[in-house]
UniProtKB/TrEMBL annotation:
Domain TonB-dependent receptor-like beta-barrel: residue ranges: 367-892
Leader peptide range in chain numbering: 1-18
Keywords (A to Z) from UniProt: Cell outer membrane, Membrane, Receptor, Signal, TonB box, Transmembrane, Transmembrane beta strand, Transport
Organism in which the protein naturally occurs: Mucilaginibacter pocheonensis
The organism's taxonomic lineage, starting at the top: Bacteria, Pseudomonadati, Bacteroidota, Sphingobacteriia, Sphingobacteriales
Domain TonB-dependent receptor plug: start-end pairs: 118-224
Topology versus the membrane: Multi-pass membrane protein
Annotated SUPFAM superfamilies: Carboxypeptidase regulatory domain-like (SSF49464), Porins (SSF56935)
Family matches, as InterPro entries: Beta-barrel_TonB (IPR000531), Beta-barrel_TonB_sf (IPR036942), CarboxyPept-like_regulatory (IPR008969), Plug_dom (IPR012910), Plug_dom_sf (IPR037066), TonB-dep_rcpt-like (IPR039426)
Domain of life of the native organism: Bacteria
Localization (cell): Cell outer membrane
Key word Transferase present: no
Family label: Belongs to the TonB-dependent receptor family.
Protein name: Outer membrane receptor protein involved in Fe transport
Length: 921
């Protein structure tokens, strides 16, 4: 420790003994106008500053020996390098305007900076200019325009992104980093979109790696990576304010237009190029999209008999009607449910607060502390529709970095506050008001049985004054005393259940955390013969849900993971060929370790034509939820796949498959309809039941091969084309089984009649288990992207992606579903300055229809129709006022579209925004 303190003190005081250097000057454009907020940075160092409103700057790079190089950069201009040879050199720089940087610098592909043209794998980037001119309501919505990107909207404040298939509303296969910090919630184990991300004003860039990135980023980056970088307060000083207001819910039946507002503020300041800080605050609020698809999806009712008059109706966005029973004489009947709008809090918001302190210990070493606080409300589609109500996510990050290393530690903590499960909520409200035949309200544990008894009595004519053999009349009688939405009784029951956690209520409680440390060192400058990069990480999960998600009231759940990687690169044949090899090893304490290698080659022809090929591997450890969730959602219990999680339940060992139970139930019903007694029907069809064979959970694996070509032709046309083929094993999935109390098999090895009788009487317990697919499947895809710089500042771009899933001989019921359209296409067109500061941008997105599989619908398919939508904005820039006025809209033709089955249909948002951005120097 004494040696470390001595080194830090020596580095901090180095500038005292070195020659004092003071550089000053101006930065203008070709017309002589000052360039505001241009970056002035010493090449390969952390030292830098920015220009003020007159284009002036002063830089004191003390401690750096002459000569050295300064890099001058600004949005919309070509980068320029200037050689510094004098201790008091004056600079007068003129930057050449460029509408768009087609050859961007990226870092995520190899974890070191390089040209995007020579990236060894596919990489997409949304730079600061694209973020500013994005026509969507938020920058995060605009990510869907990138090549190969998929997006799913569960809520106005929650959108999920993905690449290359196997999409889901909660995507734990896709890593999202903000300044290197994993933005996932510890309890849910996936990033909740941009609900807790960075403010649009503070985002400098976003990079996307489609496909496996585990070789460099570990287990979460199984399907890809989104890396968001925020603005450095040394480089981006000043005050920025955004005022945005808009409307949604236009043209909806039974609903008028609703307002949306988005306020954001950023302030950053540096002192003597040694210390800097930044503060961010943003607040978005509005009325959420409505999930109001009332399609009858009853699994036990033939399709032709489904609908609003089906006594066993199970509507998609009505909850509580999942509880059903075979009522003698009346058939299978479901309880009356409640619509989602009466259960969900649609008044959503997102509050983001951020502060960061940056201190340069020396000219090449910088220390950072950053704190992020996010609080918000969103609707999330999982096994149910969850209301993340006043959910809080906090992160603390400390980092020490230089041009060739970093060490970073952070902690992510959550507090679910008033979050709840709407399906469970409806079921619990339904158990608060049921009366027996004598008019007495029964206890909740007897409510369902009593309701069905009332229904049967009314239908079979044993209740005086009630017409027999009438399903509607029987339901009305059974529903007497029902709490109606809008009444004090309903509100009281709802509030009580939301704040009751675990098996006795709908509340979801989580106060979980994870701690993470990662480090990286670039040995390339020391070795010189070849490039060498090494790094590692350690993570500890500390879960606490007080029994509401996990069985952790007394059994504390803590999980350790660690990993390390090595990457070597070498240029050959006059630097035209670049070979890179990476390998990573990761270990979770509950599973065997996994090696994930990656090999790549990039060959450059005639300087601008770059051909690439890579072999990549990916893996994903089961998340804490995959391993330990223990959640009762009414008619089914969701159970994680760790062996100890199901101890004493005898469900992995003694259960029937859901498919065989459905076949058995249909056959028994048909037999009874044909005149057989229930006992005879069971005996005749019991052998249709199949004992389940579900394995405990283990990590997923992927192997992928990719080839691509990327070229910049005449500095005007950017071409990017690629093809990939991936194979997958051990996909983590959910399977439903039903467990009787009796052994499923008799001593003769055949189905036990007693167990079959329990199934017929619906007295079995249903479980949704986490396990792995035993089958091997593959996917392939190709994409083409074009960007063309037209004369007079017009920019046209387009991309198309073809995705294909090959099931082979695998069982569709045993595979995590692909959930990806076969075709996805984007077209963009814009000009940042058509005339006199006016600009515009258009973005069109189309995707083909496909079947969506998810736990919300019991892993049964739901159709997502083909759709297209257009985002557009026009803007007026007022340079002397540092202000931009934007008028725009997302999905401007107001076509209501669903992106995931069970999630809400999303319509247009029309907005006007005022953005003030001044260096204040």
């Amino acid at each position: 420790m004494k040696k470390l303190l001595f080194i830090i003190m020596l580095l901090s005081s180095w500038h005292v003994f070195a020659q004092d250097v003071k550089i000053s000057g101006t930065v203008n454009d070709a017309a002589g106008n000052p360039v505001v907020n241009a970056g002035i940075k010493v090449k390969n160092k952390t030292v830098g500053t920015t220009t003020n409103s007159q284009g002036h700057f002063t830089l004191n790079p003390n401690g750096i020996k002459l000569p050295f190089t300064v890099v001058v950069s600004a949005i919309g201009y070509d980068q320029l390098e200037v050689q510094i040879t004098s201790a008091a050199q004056m600079m007068s720089v003129s930057l050449t305007a460029k509408n768009i940087m087609l050859n961007e610098v990226v870092t995520s592909a190899t974890r070191v900076s390089q040209s995007s043209l020579q990236s060894p794998v596919s990489v997409e980037k949304m730079g600061q200019r694209a973020i500013k001119e994005n026509p969507s309501f938020t920058f995060y919505d605009g990510l869907q325009s990138l090549k190969g990107m998929e997006a799913v909207t569960s809520s106005l404040t929650y959108k999920q992104v993905n690449t290359r298939g196997f999409n889901s509303t909660g995507n734990s296969r896709f890593l999202q980093l903000v300044d290197g910090v994993d933005n996932q919630t510890p309890g849910l184990n996936f990033a909740v979109g941009n609900l807790f991300g960075a403010s649009d004003l503070d985002i400098e860039s976003a990079e996307v790696i489609p496909g496996a990135a585990s070789a460099l980023y570990g287990p979460v980056a199984f399907n890809g990576l989104l890396s968001i970088k925020t603005k450095d307060p040394f480089k981006y000083e000043g005050l920025a304010v955004q005022l945005k207001t808009g409307l949604n819910h236009l043209g909806e039946t039974g609903s008028g237009a609703k307002s949306i507002s988005d306020f954001a503020l950023r302030y950053a300041k540096s002192f003597n190029n040694r210390f800097a800080f930044k503060l961010n605050a943003s607040y978005l609020t509005g009325t959420d999209w409505y999930a109001n698809d009332y399609t009858d999806i009853s699994a036990t009712t033939p399709v032709g008999q489904r609908g609003p008059n089906n006594p066993n109706r199970d509507a998609l966005n009505i909850y509580g009607d999942e509880v059903s029973q075979n009522v003698p004489g009346a058939g299978v009947v479901s309880r009356t449910g409640y619509e989602e709008k009466d259960l969900m809090n649609y008044n959503v918001y997102s509050l983001k607060l951020n502060g960061a302190l940056h201190y340069k210990i020396s000219n090449d070493i910088e220390a950072i502390y950053q704190y992020n606080y996010g609080r918000g409300t969103a609707s999330y589609t999982g096994s149910s529709r969850f209301d993340l109500n006043n959910f809080v996510l906090q992160t603390h990050r400390i980092e020490l970095k230089s041009s060739n290393f970093f060490i970073r530690s952070y902690v992510v903590g959550e507090n679910s506050h008033d979050s709840y499960n709407t399906r469970s909520l409806a079921q619990f409200i339904n158990r608060d008001w049921v009366k027996d035949l004598n008019g007495n309200v029964v206890t909740p544990d007897k409510a369902d049985a009593t309701w069905f008894n009332r229904y049967g009595a009314a239908f079979n004519g044993t209740v005086p004054g009630i017409t027999a053999n009438n399903q509607a009349t029987a339901r009305a009688f059974a529903d007497q005393g029902r709490f109606l939405p809008g009444t004090p009784e309903f509100a009281a029951a709802k509030d009580a259940s939301i704040h009751n956690y675990g098996l006795s209520g709908a509340g979801v409680f989580s106060n979980s955390k994870f701690y993470h440390t990662d480090a990286q060192y670039d040995f390339s400058k020391a070795i010189k013969v070849f490039e060498l990069l090494a790094g590692g990480s350690f993570r500890k999960y500390s879960m606490f849900t007080n029994g509401s998600l996990f069985d952790d009231k007394t059994n504390k759940i803590k999980i350790d993971e660690y990993g390390s990687f090595l990457q070597a690169g070498k240029k050959l044949f006059n630097d035209d060929l670049k070979l890179t090899a990476s390998i990573r090893y990761d270990k979770n304490e509950n599973f065997k370790g996994s090696f994930t290698p990656r090999f790549s080659a990039v060959y450059t022809v005639a300087k601008t034509h770059n051909f690439r090929a890579s072999y990549q591997t990916g893996f994903r450890n089961p998340t804490p939820v995959d391993q330990f969730i223990h959640l009762n959602v009414g008619p089914i219990t969701i159970l994680g796949g760790a062996p100890g999680n199901s101890a004493g339940l005898n469900v992995y060992q003694n259960s029937f498959t859901a498919a065989s139970v459905n076949a058995f139930g249909a056959a028994v019903g048909a037999a009874i309809g044909g005149g057989a007694s229930p006992q005879q029907a069971v005996a005749q069809n019991k052998d249709l039941l199949v004992k389940s064979n579900v394995a405990y959970i283990k990590p997923e694996q992927q192997k992928a091969f990719e080839v691509g070509y990327k070229s910049l032709i005449n500095d005007k046309l950017l071409v990017d084309v690629n093809y990939y083929h991936s194979t997958y094993t051990n996909f983590i999935l959910n399977t439903v089984v039903l467990r009787p109390t009796a052994p499923v098999l008799g001593t003769d090895g055949k189905v036990n009649p007693a167990a079959a009788g329990e199934v017929a009487n619906r007295s079995v317990s249903a479980f949704q288990l986490y396990t792995n697919a035993s089958d091997k499947v593959s996917a392939q895809g190709a994409s083409l992207g074009l960007t063309y710089l037209i004369d007079k500042g017009y920019i046209a771009g387009g991309n198309a992606t073809l995705s294909s899933f090959n099931l082979g001989t695998a069982n569709i019921n045993n595979i995590a579903q692909y959930n990806t359209p076969r075709w996805s296409t984007n077209v963009t067109f814009g000009n940042s300055n058509v005339s006199k500061g006016f600009g515009f941008n258009l973005a069109w997105h189309y995707q083909s229809a496909f079947d969506w599989y998810g736990t919300f619908n019991g892993v049964r398919p739901g159709r997502i129709n083909a759709y297209s939508m257009v985002d557009a904005q026009i803007n007026k820039k007022l340079p002397h006022a540092y202000t931009t006025i934007k008028l725009g809209g997302s999905n401007i033709f107001n076509k209501y579209i669903s992106q995931a089955y069970g999630s809400p249909a999303v319509g247009a948002i029309y907005y006007v925004a005022l953005v003030f951005d001044s260096p204040l120097k």
